[in-house]
Amino acid sequence: MAHYSLSEEQKAFYHGQGYLINLPSVFSPAEMAQLNAELKNLEALLEPGEKMMAIREWHISSRWLYDVCTRPQILDYVEGILGPNFYMWGSQFFAKSPNSKETVAWHQDAYYWPLHPHNSVTIWLAFTDVNEDNGAMQIIPKSHKAGLITHTSNSGDSVLTLELEQGTFNEADAKSLILHAGQISLHDDAIVHGSPANQSDRWRNGLTVRYSGTNVKCDLTKAPQFKAYLVRGADEFNYNPPGVIPTEPFARLSKEHHIASTDEFKK
Ligand SMILES: O=C(O)CCC(=O)C(=O)O
C-alpha cells in the first residue's frame, strides 16, 4: 500500500502556521460520490430535529464511519505531525444547508477539551467542495502559538456554546481553508478558527476527526465516555480506556454516549 508522508517543508509549515492544506486528495471524486450516498444511511438514523452535527462520535457505533476516520492516507499525514504513536478519539460532521445563517464562532478546540498535554490534530475531510461562498472553515495563522484565550458564552448564530471575545485576535488575518471534496485540512488544537454562514445555493459539509499522541491523557471525570482507538504504533502510556471497533456498518450512538458529555467538553 502506498505510504503518504509529509515533506519537511509541510511539517515546518504546520508547526509554524498551525494548519496545513494543499495535500493530495484522500478520496477520488468517484469515492466521494459513493461516500456521500452511503452517508445517507447515517443521516437516516437522526431523530426528528437533529442536525448533521449530532452525528458525533458515531465512529464508536458505525464501522463505515470508523473506516473513513482511519483511512491509511489520513493516518499517514497525521503521523507526519504526531509521530508514530497516536489514537483517534473524536468525529463530528459540520454541515451547513444552502443559504443557512449558521456560523461556527471563533474558538480554540483545546479550550473545550480536558486533554493534557496539548498534542492533538484535527483533520477536516471535505464531503462537498468548500470555499468562501459556502462557508469554508477559516483559521488565524500562527494563533496556536499565543496560548489559550478566555472564551465567553456565544449569543449569535453560532452552533457552538462558547466564542472568543472580539479584539483577542486579528480577524483580518483570517484565511479560508478551500478544499475540493475528498481533500483534507489539518489543524492544531490551539489554533483560532471558525466559519461564516453559507451564502451559496450549495451544501457545505465536512467531517472533523480528532487524533492525539499516546502521551495525551483525558480527564475522565470531565469526559467519562472517552474512548481511545490506537490507530498507529504502540501505546506505551495506557492512559485512556481503549475503544472497541464497531461491527455494524451503520448504527447510531445515543446522545449520552457523546464524548462531550459535560459542559467543559461541549462543542
Ligand atoms: O466546520 C467548521 O466550520 C468548524 C469545524 C471545527 O470547529 C473544528 O474542526 O474544530
- Compute the number of structural domains: 1
Radius of gyration: 17 Å
Reading the helices and strands in chain order gives HEHHHEEHEEEEEEEEEEE
Helix count equals: 5
Q: Which residue ranges are poorly predicted, with pLDDT under 50 across at least 5 consecutive positions?
A: 261-266
Secondary-structure content class? alpha+beta
CATH superfamily: q2cbj1_9rhob like domain
- CATH fold call: Jelly Rolls
Using the 3D structure, state the CATH architecture: Sandwich
Please identify the top-level CATH class. Answer: Mainly Beta
Q: Shape from CA axes? A: globular
Task: Please provide a written account of the structure.
With 267 residues, the protein is of the alpha+beta class. It has a single domain, classed as Jelly Rolls. Helices cover 18% and strands 22% of the residues. It has 5 helices and 14 strands. The strands form 4 sheets. The protein has a 6-stranded antiparallel beta sheet. A 4-stranded antiparallel beta sheet has the order 3-11-6-9, with no helix packed on it. It has a two-stranded antiparallel ribbon with strand order 4-13. A hairpin with an 8-residue loop joins strand 7 and strand 8. The chain is globular and about 40 Å long. The protein starts with 7 loop residues before the first helix and ends in a 35-residue tail after the last strand. The C terminus is likely disordered. The structure holds 2-oxoglutaric acid. The site of 2-oxoglutaric acid (AKG) has 10 residues, from strand 5, strand 11 and strand 12. Pfam families: PhyH (PF05721). This is Phytanoyl-CoA dioxygenase family protein.
